[in-house]
Specification:
By secondary structure, the chain is an alpha+beta fold. The chain is built from 14 helices and 14 strands. 37% of the residues are buried.
């Protein structure tokens, strides 16, 4: 009881200095809570941001993957002339991607059949794909998938094409099963190709192609949108997958699937598993299989896609990890600097407080108070005012974290309880260290000299 009376009495006698300590701790707690709150949540935020820039997993036929690994060949892409594919996956197997353990992490996917066709005597790459297709799953649910979600950065003049239907010359709706090659389907053309061929939105072009059996097929495509992708895709044409299959006489065939998934940045375990999953111990295997690493999701896609090899897009994974580590490093550095600043400020304020209260402390020692009792008094006073400042700072830090989340990522930050626990532990250690150097002066305080004004 006596200790509490002494503590509250010191507040009334040195209110301004105590408030300075509280404000110092409050500011430090605010910065620490905000920065560490964002650090623990930034992985998911960056994942969501980077996922808007396309796929991070690519699925191909196993034969193509083997040839690519053996001869170190890269995907030529839509902008370069490449031979038509010779190995395929089944388009009807694509929905099984959403039956894996990580189905909810797979946010979008789009199959592709990449072939070459002739437009006005010019050989151009043609991609048959899904634009924004409603896909029924074996569970009875439906999902919407396609390049509209995968290519959100495209600048489109006109509109996105529709799947499974086009307008014939008489306005008749054409279904995927229609074999009438004179029907007009909707498609999209890259800006670079449109400039070369002088094609405008709303015009109709004719794709022609010689199939493997020597037949010549053609497909009329009404260009409903011209897109600027900023890459080699701008040299090609996108049409519905069924239309490209009919043009090439390759029913139910695709040569590539792009998958966009929310993933956890790679670590040593993920890299080890990617090289050889069989080399993992049982505990490592369970941890890797049940964590949303790109390699784990790719492995499970291979389990449900016969004859497929799924690989992560290394550039996206590397960028995600690099940006995440740098962002976390900056925020942790800011947290450390705020703690150091708080330690210096609290140490100086306590030293000044002890200097001003020299006579009071000397009197306490003169009437029998030990060095330990006086030190506990000072520590209790500092702890109480720091706790008040820390609680206020924790609340302000939570608000600041939400502001950072909405300004930078467009969504709130999930504040985890461990953030508050960690911040209070760090503040307690910081204040204890700062107080130690000031309280040491009490041990050298001589009551007789101080009370006699020496």
């Amino acid at each position: 009881m006596f200790l509490l009376r002494m503590v509250f009495r010191s507040f009334s006698r040195q209110l301004k200095r105590r408030l300075l300590i509280a404000v110092t701790v409050c500011l430090s707690a605010t910065i620490c809570v905000a920065m560490l709150g964002v650090v623990f949540d930034v992985g998911d935020k960056l994942n969501a941001e980077l996922s808007t820039y396309g796929s991070n997993i690519v699925v191909k036929p196993k034969a193509d993957a083997v040839v690519s690994d053996l001869y170190n060949t890269a995907d030529a892409g839509n902008g370069a002339e490449a031979a038509d594919p010779t190995s395929f996956l089944k388009e009807s197997d694509v929905p099984s991607i959403k039956t894996t353990f990580w189905a909810f992490n797979i946010t979008d996917f789009a199959p592709e059949l990449n072939v070459n066709a002739i437009i006005d005597g010019r050989n151009v790459p043609v991609t048959g794909t899904w634009f924004n297709k409603k896909v029924p799953l074996a569970t009875g649910q439906n999902v919407v998938a396609g390049v509209k979600g995968m290519r959100s950065w495209w600048k489109v003049d006109g509109a996105w094409a529709k799947d499974g239907a086009g307008a014939s010359g008489t306005g008749k709706v054409v279904a995927a099963a229609d074999t009438n090659q004179t029907a007009v389907v909707q498609g999209m053309m890259g800006k670079d190709l449109a400039n070369v061929t002088h094609t405008k939105v709303g015009q109709t072009v004719t794709l022609s192609k010689a199939t493997a059996d020597g037949q010549h097929r053609s497909q009329r495509v009404r260009i409903v949108g011209i897109f600027d992708s900023g890459d080699n895709d701008a040299n090609g044409v996108y049409i519905p997958s069924w239309s490209a299959q009919r043009l090439s006489d390759l029913p139910d065939s695709i040569d590539k699937i792009e998958v966009k998934a929310l993933t956890t940045p790679e670590n040593d375990l993920a890299r080890k598993a990617e090289k050889d999953p069989a080399a993992l111990s049982q505990e490592e295997w369970e941890t890797w299989y049940c964590t949303a690493y790109p390699s784990s999701i790719a492995y499970q896609i291979e389990e449900v896609m016969p004859g497929a090899v799924a690989k992560q897009v290394r550039q996206v994974a590397a960028l995600q990890g690099d940006v995440l580590h740098k962002t976390q490093a900056v925020m942790i550095l800011m947290t450390a600097l705020s703690l150091i600043a708080a330690a210096i400020a609290v140490a100086n304020l306590m030293a000044s407080s002890i200097g001003e209260r020299g006579s009071e402390l000397a009197l306490l020692k003169a009437i029998g108070a030990t060095d330990g009792a006086v030190s506990r008094l000072m520590l209790t006073e500092t702890a109480v005012i720091s706790l008040i400042g820390g609680l206020v700072g924790a609340g302000l830090g939570s608000l600041l974290a939400q502001v950072i989340g909405h300004v930078v990522f467009g969504s709130g930050v999930v504040m985890r309880p461990m953030v508050f626990v960690l911040v209070f532990v760090l503040l307690a250690v910081t204040i204890l260290i700062a107080s130690f150097s000031s309280i040491r002066s009490i041990l050298h305080l001589r009551p007789a000299e101080v009370l006699h004004g020496r």
